[in-house]
Amino acid sequence: MSLGLDYLPVELLYHIQLLALSEHLPLTSRHLKNVFDSSPNSFRAQYITHRIIPHSIDWPPNLYSKVLRYRVCTPPVLDIICTRCPQASATNLHLMTELPKHLFRRLDTRKRPRSDADEPLPGFALTMAVHASFIPLIHYLLEMGANPAAKDAIAIIVAIRKKDLNLVRMLVEPQQKSSSKRWRGIPDRMRCSEFPELLKVAMKVDARDIVNYLREKGCVPDLGMIKWLSS
Fold it and tell me: How far is CA 211 from the centre of its chain?
């Protein structure tokens, strides 16, 4: 009588998965799902690193961007991976690491399909934080180098649609940590004049204070906009 995977020892199942690296294997039976759901952090760290660099001993420069895409990458799992790859210096991680979409899923009320590893989108984290008006997270992302001009300045467009001038200003202008005053001599994070769509969106939602702000930042209205402003 032939026996299936369900009858194999747990340790052997872990070994098989590290060879197969299949995201579908745990879904083949309830028993296997329970086995891998209760797997130790050390195994999960091995699984993730094997998926990322299966045929190479070199750690990719975007290692942490790839690692964080896996939902099984909890803080303890990430700690194990970090200890195993000392070559990936953490000094400049904020310059090369992109946060995956699933970390911000709770900020989005829309239902979206899930995958084993989410591909990050440029500016996605900042845009979701703006969508949720999560001010501390917005400050943190900006300090870590998030670019409000990414993806055609979608983060600022979301702020404009919320008709929140303070939020728009926060995204455009760098802020001092000790006060709300803008740094002197420090340029804006982006040139609003390079994104004429911002002014159109502000006019469409009738956010006149934001329209005036964008004009101060160099956005030039066209003839139709001038008529709207004079009405």
Answer: 29
53 neighbors 82 (Cβ within 8 angstroms): no
Predicted local distance difference test score (pLDDT) of residue 1: 45
pLDDT at 91: 44
CA distance 149 to 78: 30
d(CA 17, CA 43): 10
pLDDT band at 94 (very low <50, low <70, confident <90, very high): very low
Residue type, 118: D
Q: What is the pLDDT of residue 143?
A: 82
**DSSP structural state of residue 117:** B
Q: Are 205 and 160 in contact (CB under 8 A)?
A: yes
Structure tokens at 108: 């989005």
CA distances to 13, 18, 64, 101, 123 from 92, rounded to whole Å, are 37, 30, 11, 21, 18
Three-state SS at 212: helix
Averaged over 205-230, what is the pLDDT?
82
- pLDDT: which is higher, 210 or 87: 210
As a dihedral over the C-alpha atoms of residue 137, residue 139, residue 145, residue 149, rounded to 10 degrees, the angle is 90
Strands annotated E in 111-207: none
Q: How far apart are CA 167 and CA 7, in angstroms?
A: 57
d(Cα 36, Cα 32) in Å, to the nearest integer?
Answer: 6
